[in-house]
Amino acid sequence: MNFDTAEVIDKKVIFEQIETALKKENFTVVNKDETRPWGGFFVIDEDQAAVFAAKFFPHLKMDAIKITNKLSPKILVVAPQKRLSWQYHFRRAEIWKILTGIVGVKTSTTDEEGEIQQLTPGTFIQMDKGERHRLIGLDSWGIIAEIWQHTDPENPSDEDDIVRLQDDFGR
Predict the structure, then answer these.
(1) Average pLDDT in the 148-159 region?
(2) Between 104 and which of 12, 35, 69, 116 could a Cys-Cys bridge form, CB atoms 3.0 to 4.6 Å apart?
(3) 59-98 in b/e burial notation, b at 16+ Cβ within 10 A?
(4) Is 29:43 a contact under the CB 8 Å cutoff?
(5) Is 48 helix (H, G, I), strand (E, B) or coil?
(6) Are the beta carbons of 82 and 137 closer than 8 angstroms?
(7) Computed from CA positions of residues 149, 152, 158, 163, in that sequence, does the dihedral angle turn out positive or negative?
(8) Which residue from 20, 3, 95, 18 is spatially nearest to 56, judged by alpha carbons?
(9) Can you give the residue ranges of every domain in the chain?
(10) Which residues are bridge partners to 27 per DSSP?
(11) Strand order in the sheet with 92-100
(12) Is the pLDDT of residue 9 over 80?
């Protein structure tokens, strides 16, 4: 999945391009959300988690990343000049790989936002459970492969497992 997102402005077009690329790679999209004010995401079928991890995180061994029996593979799409909330999670760690675009990421072990890091395509970043983090769109669309490391096998993480410390959209 590699395309020039610098020239694409329309959200609908970028989502169509990503969906086409995922289908070409034989990934099954089980959920898509284009309504997020910062962009959106694609959820990939959990049965394809090992294939997803092998494709986007080939340097990681499955037994090292699969703490429980779920990985919740996703593709995040962050719009230019938009920021996800400054957040953390109680029941998951996250692993990201930047696929397209240069994005900003802030991380911290405290509630105070860290310095922005500019991450380029191919860059890998891992956030521990409880680590504060924020994804930031810079000059172009950012496309990020994400897997969740669920830390509680009895209560896997979900979209409700987000503690927002700051949010540009008042959520």
Answers:
(1) 88
(2) 116
(3) ebeeeebbbbebbbbbbbbbbbebbbbbbbbebbbbbbbb
(4) yes
(5) helix
(6) yes
(7) negative
(8) 95
(9) 11-166
(10) none
(11) 29-33, 39-44, 74-78, 142-150, 92-100, 124-127
(12) no
Phi, psi (degrees; rounded to nearest 5) at 134: -150, 135
What's the pLDDT band for 150 if we cut at 50, 70, 90? confident
Q: Tell me the percentage of the chain whose pLDDT exceeds 90.
A: 78
Given 3.30.70.270, 3.30.70.1530, 2.60.120.10, 3.20.20.140, which CATH number is that of 11-166?
2.60.120.10
DSSP 3-state of 96: strand
- pLDDT tens sequence across 18-71: 999 999 999 999 999 999 999 999 999 999 998 999 999 998 877 777 666 788
| Helix, strand or coil, per DSSP, at residue 20 | helix
Dist CA 77 CA 14 (whole Å): 9
**Helices (H), ranges, 38-114:** 49-56, 62-65
